[in-house]
Amino acid sequence: MNTSKSSLLKHNGLNYLLPFILITACFSLWGFANDITNPMVKAFSKIFRMSVTEGALVQLAFYGGYFAMAFPAAIFIRKFSYKKGIMLGLLLYAVGAFLFLPAKESGSFYPFLAAYFILTCGLSFLETSANPYILTMGPEETSTRRLNLAQSFNPMGSLAGMYVAMNFIQARLNPMSTSERAVLPDADFIAMKQSDLSILIAPYLAIGLVVMAMFLIIWIAHMPTNGDKNKEINFIPTLKRIFSIPNYRQGVIAQFFYVGAQIMCWTFIIQYGTRVFMAQGMEEQAAEVLSQKYNIVAMIIFCASRFVCTYLLKFINPGKLLRILAVAAAIFTLGVIFLQDISGLYSLVAVSACMSLMFPTIYGIALKGMGDDAKFGAAGLIMAILGGSVLPPLQASIIDLKTIGSNFPAVNASFILPFICFVVVAWYGAQTYRRSKKVYS
Hints:
- This protein has a two-stranded antiparallel sheet with strand order 1-2.
- The model is unreliable at 1-6 (pLDDT under 50).
- By secondary structure, it is mostly helical.
- The protein has a single domain, classed as MFS general substrate transporter like domains (Growth Hormone, Chain: A).
- 78% of the residues lie in helices and 2% in strands.
């Protein structure tokens, strides 16, 4: 097999470099949306004087949009094209971001959930379109590496989202603690809430403008039409066909648990770090900001690790490498649970190095060899992002217990859920590696 760099983006005399760059830029845009949103669970909880469980409804709305729109997106893409699917995704993304302004004017929490839902309906279109589109931009034997390379730019957007959340939202919100806000008179609370919401919505309005600019660029650009020839829907027969493939069927399950683990680890690192630093005598807001810095370090490690893993895939079977890193992530998660000082936070940061490979590799293994069926296959894998909607509220409900037993921190105990998720991912890696050895034996 030719594993040169050029083989990633050249096939049958065609060069896909420019389309690859444009679609990869979209990966960064949804990375920004994901990781500016994770810290908002804590921010909304403070602004609206809610519990962590109520604040986690942000994640329910955010990832619920992925789930609801995945198969409609696949049908749209099948009927029209990957390019039009990406354009519609960008448009919905921008509309959702702009809806933060009327949500702020309402002064209520629930219009924000509606804005998040619409925004992520756009992200569902983007991911359902962009991931399989990248797989078509070169030879099939390098498709998993190509998707890992494109996904390597996703955490760059995530880093930008984290940086903006920390410096332009968290650091500028009123420093009054959650407990102090709880006893404020209603008039003072409403004034503080409106001030904080004005700070919170500004980055969303700005990213809405950036997304509209990207929409215009994609609109005028010449894009390849690979995989756009078959316009027939054949919904039920296609679903039966793709779910009969073990790598795909199990891949949807693995992706559900992986995304749940990723969102839990990145959302609740704020609560985890805040507990660690407040135990050292730090004020709540300072502890939150410092915890977000650790989250940014985790994302930097995640980003660097993805480039390293993309290189390692030249030499190591994807399923085998997935199994190795999932086992390592599970071990680090045990450290998160049982180490109650800064060492536990270090373990939580280290988990990100192991997670970097997982999403695109599960995706690439599950869709490999599907051809035009990959459009519907991609939808199933995007629906599996529902794990990021279902599992974080469960973890939040454990965190709200404060302690387990006499004095074990509930935030530590809550990481049993990511541990279970990584065990499932390790199982999937082992299953696909075993099947790949049979193919080549």
